[in-house]
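Methods — Computational structure assignment.
A single polypeptide chain was analysed. Its primary sequence is given first, followed by the predicted tertiary structure written as structure tokens.
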Amino acid sequence: MSDEQKVKKIIEEQKKQNEVDTQMSEDKTLIENQQFFVFDNNAKSSTEEMIKQQLRENAGNQTLNANDPENHISDEDKRRSTEKHQEQHVQQKEETPFHSFSDQIVPYLQPPPQQEVQVSDSPKSENVTQETEQENTEETEGKRAKEHKLTNSNSGVSETWNPDGGNTGSSPKESLESRKSWSTQASQSQNEKERRKDESEGDEGNGNIDGYTWRLCNETTGPDFIPCLDNTKAIQQLRTTAHYEHRERHCPEEGPVCLVPLPEGYKVPIPWPKSRDKIWYRNVPHPMLAEVKGHQNWVRVTGEIITFPGGGTQFIHGALHYIDFIQQAVPKIAWGKYTRVSLDVGCGVASFGGYLFERDVLTMSFAPKDEHDAQIQFALERGIPAISAVMGTKRLQFPSNVFDLVHCARCRVPWHIDGGKLLLELNRVLRPGGYFVWSATPVYQKLGEDVEIWNAMSNLTVSMCWELVTIKMDKLNSAGFAIYRKPTTNECYEKRNQMTPPMCQNEEDPNAAWYVPLQACVHRVPVDKAERGSQWPEAWPHRLQRPPYWLNSSQMGIYGRPAPQDFTRDYKHWRYVVSTSYMSGLGINWSNVRNVMDMRAVYGGFAAALKDLQVWVMNVVNVNSPDTLPIIYERGLFGIYHDWCESFSTYPRSYDLLHADHLFSQLKNRCKLVPVMAEVDRIIRPGGKLIVRDEPSAVTEVENFLKSLHWEILFAFSKDQEGVLSAQKGNWRPDTYQPSS
């Protein structure tokens, strides 16, 4: 199914949803230069007809002039019309999803025709064909978006849901009262780093970039610079690196304000799904991994192309056979149904996670930035979700009890040392009843060291009350694995003869994950039926659209409604926004989008609305925001905690699209925006897009920054309390380098 067909499918599903739920029966109010009229979704005039009418009016230069007496409607008339409109729909209003003015002004319901990108066997012709087609498509869409901006710059303000049921003309915002009901990572993580002082004063803090000159990061950093992982000064001051401290995050006190150079000969990435099997060598010019792991079918270099045969250390003959063999060993794993969200530790080039997409499984893959040259960069260039992280001295940046399955294939992690701290960290993030697949030589070899490790692991897993479900040998790959299952009750813990490892103290919050040191203790399993983790989520895809069973109606949601209602409204809101606006009105060709990040996810509604497209979304929950990340995992999506006052743990040029919903207006009160914008520029690819929805002042600041970075503004619109911006990164880089410190 093509992306165009998928877009049509999304729109059709939205229309069906509207008819079934009558959620979209509320009239839409449009204002065009004070011209006021009512538009009813259930009336004969459909959304598409309304948009066509807008196009006809724009094409015929029939834009109404507010200064013309014939077109002027008095404030009293508008007031009466508004009251009549509200009275007619007071019953339906309670169930109407919220949306903003920008959702109504989009002139295209269907995206422009998208050509399938053909990748030939010839590297030269492949590059020329791909670059030409993408440039033509992007030029056409950019032109349409600009025409859109010109013809609609004064139109559209919609009736917007807010906690009080009134009309605000802006997207839903967090309820201040609701913050009392939600914890944040900043408050949960007792060892969280001291936040920077407010530095909003001065040119850099308030977004004034007059006279600011961008420079390339100093020559020693190179095109693969990750500020929080390549902080040489901090790493040199470490007392020890025995527990991989040098692979952990060590962020500079001041975020970098320089730009990362492009690799020489950088090309437009090969699109998914072809990218799973091959990428451009010039985009990730690191041949060492091919030399070291080529015999295991990890990666090979062939001229201008790097290929990925789909193998791994434990599955040389292909990941799909290995994946299916795991399910044959334990049928209850049920890829894509029972098991939806998995974690791959020490993932290599992430072929395990890349092929699990075929089984409808979303995998968070991670590995450290180490001597295995750019393995995570390979994964991201392939279009496979991955982050740079390590099993070291601190907790992973995930909530507790969220992964359905954890996988380790020769991941080189010493699970059994230090009282089992590292395996106990997996126990923290693994869902009760979830599986741990350990594919390593101690499982099936009888060498002295292997036997020693196996005995230590056996003692540790028994003391952790993990059930050894099975041990299987894969004859095709001449390897084996052991599969363990985490308990669903605390009965075993209470019957242990030796309390080693000990139970965690009650005040030890299992959800605190931001710079929290590891502890060698076991967290109790949730058993209360109303508690998160006490029940397995619904099967995919039902879990995507239904509020989690543990989301309590007595708890106020982020936007001020009871939490389950808040969840449902957020989901319908983003389905509406994506289908009627993002798919066609912002100058974005979605066939060129694979790696997506929602920089300020709440319930994960934006990611859920993209379900039918061939994209994956990294949902980021900010450490100072309400902790909604467990909800995102519960619905079969994934994400991570982060503070955008620091750099993200990923390589440059990782993402095709970043989405920032009311992020920058919050950030600028906590840290300077210059390093934040430099970080945005770092992690997005040339040709990649940024969508911003925020207060008009914040949108204007971001737009000014982007212009200084030579980005192309595809769409910009502000009205009342909200602005929308769409922009595309180019290939521009400064000519001068930042001096070495």
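Note: The longest helix spans residues 123-151.
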